[in-house]
Amino acid sequence: MKKSEYIFNNNAFINEGFSTGTITKAAMYFTKEYIYIIPDLSQQILGNNEYTTTEYTNSESFLLDLESKIDTISSNDFHKMMQSFLPENLVNGIVSLDKFTISTGWLTAGIKLKAKGGKLKTISLKPRAQLSELKAFYNL
């Protein structure tokens, strides 16, 4: 897959919605058709006064395998590979999102996305400068 067909970020923090109280650290692939979320660690920070942590042990090996072959696989094979590894709720089709915005402002920098029937997710990326690259990538 050509580098111009995707943007990769391995330092994303996803607020899964206030009612869940969950923040997920993840890697993300952005393509023109999909946004893929590959979680590394989720922490539930609200609730019954206890912290709950979930580690996704397969994500690191999956990313290493993908990184070793991404330059040699077709775009179609890339999408098949991602969709076979990730559960449906971590594969976001751009055209099927109810909300998809990218803000680059000083206080409001981040991505907001909402799948049909899902909760609004707020995503922070590091480095923040990549948000401008994503805005241009999606012509927003």
Describe this protein's structure.
Helix content is 23%, strand content 40%. β2 and β3 form a beta hairpin. With 140 residues, the chain is α+β, with helices and mostly antiparallel strands. The two termini are 23 Å apart. It has one domain (3-132): PH-domain like (Roll), CATH 2.30.29. Strands 1, 2, 3, 4, 5, 6, 7 and 8 form an 8-stranded antiparallel sheet that branches. The mean pLDDT is 86.
List keywords for this structure.
140 residues; alpha+beta; PH-domain like; globular
The structure class reads alpha+beta
Main sheet properties? 8 strands, antiparallel
Shape: globular
Low-confidence stretches: none
- Ends apart, CA distance between termini: 23 Å
Radius of gyration: 15 Å
Average per-residue pLDDT, rounded, comes to 86
* CATH architecture label: Roll
Number of strands: 8
CATH topology: PH-domain like
Helix content: 10-25%
| Total number of distinct structural domains | 1
Query: Treating each run of at least 4 consecutive H or I residues as one helix, how many helices?
Result: 3
Strand content: 35-45%
CATH class: Mainly Beta
What are the secondary-structure elements, in order, as H or E?
A: EEEEHHEEEEH
Write a brief caption for the model:
The protein is globular. The protein has three helices and eight strands; from the N terminus they run ββββααββββα.
Topology summary:
Layout: E1 6-15, E2 22-31, E3 34-44, E4 52-55, H1 57-69, H2 75-85, E5 91-93, E6 97-103, E7 110-115, E8 121-125, H3 130-137
Antiparallel strand pairs: 1-2, 1-8, 2-3, 3-4, 3-5, 6-7, 7-8
